[in-house]
Amino acid sequence: MEGFLTFVLVFFLVMWVLGKIFPRLLLWYVQRKVKKGGWSGYGPGFSGGFGNSSSVKDEKKEGEVTVSRQQEPQKKVFDKNDGEYIDFEE
Fold it and tell me: Is the pLDDT of residue 11 over 90?
């Protein structure tokens, strides 16, 4: 019984200490990464950092207008056995 109580006491003491230390370590780690200028190694296409990204390829000047065409709607193909079809407007 004494060993169990010692285990419980030590367990809660360790958890309390980790609860006080871990948030500070996490904050220090995040601040260090932000100061370095980004998060490297977090997958393809991740630019890292915050704010304006230098990886934006299509930077447009103020007042510049571009027109892009949408694709034509695809034809809807249904079989006679598909049941009742209702086309809702979006």
Answer: yes
